[in-house]
Design goal:
Layout: H1 4-28, H2 48-53, E1 59-60, E2 67-68, H3 75-79, E3 86-88, E4 91-92, H4 97-106, H5 113-123, E5 134-137, H6 142-148, H7 152-164, E6 173-175, H8 187-194, E7 198-200, E8 208-216, H9 220-231, E9 236-244
Parallel strand pairs: 3-9, 4-9, 5-8, 8-9
Antiparallel strand pairs: 1-2, 6-7
Helix pairs in contact: 5-7
């Protein structure tokens, strides 16, 4: 006779990614009526008082958005400019935004998708989307996408495109390597980890492209994807993230 416990375990394993995608999709369509931080009434999931408390970099590097003590290019960009032309991140990756992003990506609070996208849309510099032809979110590998149920960068990019009338492009870029987590790695290790991780299949000749991710730590992920966009012919490549470490 078939092992009923084995069958149950198989079904649970097979259905888990489907249920996570369903839960994320349902939650993504709901905007909480209370602030996700302080529980005060809020129409967009984060009240104005809490949004004002989020850490905003005073002098971000125009090349890679790294927070600096004074205006100008950071030492890294002076040594070697990234493959993207400019970068923007409205917030620093600091408490409490870092906790919200970790909870969202970990799947414990899928309802945070709309509030986080709302913050991105309202606070991203309009210069980031000026004359942009396509918005390309950083892709996840198929395996990680199946486990998580959604691509957090795609959700941010979708909200941005809807709000600013831009074209969302989720087909041109692919993540071809299932690389290990980048957490805790330095710039050099991140570059080695992400070498040949992305592919851009479409012809982007002459187009202005904005790449979107949720967090920019060293900028390596966006830099590697920008290199592929350049190879595909992109005339200008920008990089945008909700938060910069």
């Amino acid at each position: 006779m078939p092992d009923s416990n084995a069958e149950t375990h198989f079904l649970r394993a097979a259905l888990a990614p489907v249920l996570r995608r369903w839960a994320a999709a349902c939650a993504d369509g709901v905007v909480p009526d209370r602030c996700v931080l302080c529980r005060a009434p809020a129409t967009m999931g984060v009240c104005t008082d809490c949004a004002a408390d989020l850490v905003v970099p005073a002098s971000p590097c125009p090349g890679c958005a790294q927070p600096l003590p004074a205006a100008g290019l950071c030492p890294s960009c002076l040594r070697a400019a990234p493959a993207f032309d400019a970068a923007w991140a409205p917030f620093a990756y600091a408490w409490p935004l870092d906790r919200l992003l970790l909870s969202y990506k970990g799947g414990s609070r899928p309802q945070l998708g709309r509030p986080l996208a709302g913050l991105f849309v309202r606070h991203l510099d309009p210069a980031a989307t000026r004359a942009v032809d396509r918005v390309i979110p950083v892709p996840l590998h198929d395996g990680r996408l199946a486990r998580r149920g959604f691509n957090q960068a795609e959700r941010l990019a979708l909200g941005l495109c809807r709000a600013r009338g831009l074209e969302l492009d989720t087909r041109s870029a692919r993540r071809v390597l299932a690389t290990p987590s980048q957490q805790g790695l330095g710039r050099r290790a991140r570059r080695a980890n992400l070498r040949k991780a992305f592919a851009v299949d479409a012809d982007l000749s002459g187009l202005r492209v904005l790449l979107v991710d949720d967090v920019m730590t060293t900028g390596t992920t966006l830099d590697m994807l920008a290199r592929e966009a350049r190879r595909a012919g992109a005339a200008w490549v920008g990089a945008a993230a909700l938060a910069r470490a």
